[in-house]
Amino acid sequence: MGEPSLRSAQFTPPRTIPQLLCGEGLARNVAFISNLMESGVEFTAVDFPQTNRLTVHILAAVAEHEREMISRRAKDALANAKARGTKLGGNRGKIHLVAKKGALARAAVRSSKAKRRAADIVPIVEDIRVSGAVSLRQIAAALNTRGIRTSRGGAWSAVQVQRVIGV
């Protein structure tokens, strides 16, 4: 099992001793680093060129400890959240039901917004009708002339007017 950060490490061609040129975060596993050391690989850290075998070993031990502490804190936080009654995760086996519920909720929100918008536009349309506009095209033209835009910021058409006033 290799460490993911080794994929980004650059191996220099072997001379007499294999050399591993590495950046930050080579490994958080002391055993892995120890095995590399035992195999005779020399380490050169790009971000800390003064490093030696002892330093690499110590930093690996600290990184391993840090990984374990992060894991413990995450597990404790999840356990605390669960104890408070927070629902964790989800039932991925019934995602289609959740998606349907979300689609229905979105449709309800869109419908509510459309009704509020129509309620704002209808009095303006009535004023336009009083001023002599009879057809849906005339009403749309009057809305556009007044600079009133559709909910998406476009120009009005007869079909949009028809939908808003519910004819």
TrEMBL record:
Pfam families membership: Recombinase (PF07508), Resolvase (PF00239)
Record keywords: DNA recombination, DNA-binding
Record bears the keyword ATP-binding: no
Recombinase domain mapped to chain residues: 133-165
Record carries keyword DNA-binding: yes
Gene3D superfamilies in the record: Resolvase, N-terminal catalytic domain (3.40.50.1390)
Domain Resolvase/invertase-type recombinase catalytic: 30-86
Molecular function (Gene Ontology), one example: DNA strand exchange activity
Domain of life the protein comes from: Bacteria
Descriptive protein name: Uncharacterized protein
Organism: Microvirga aerophila
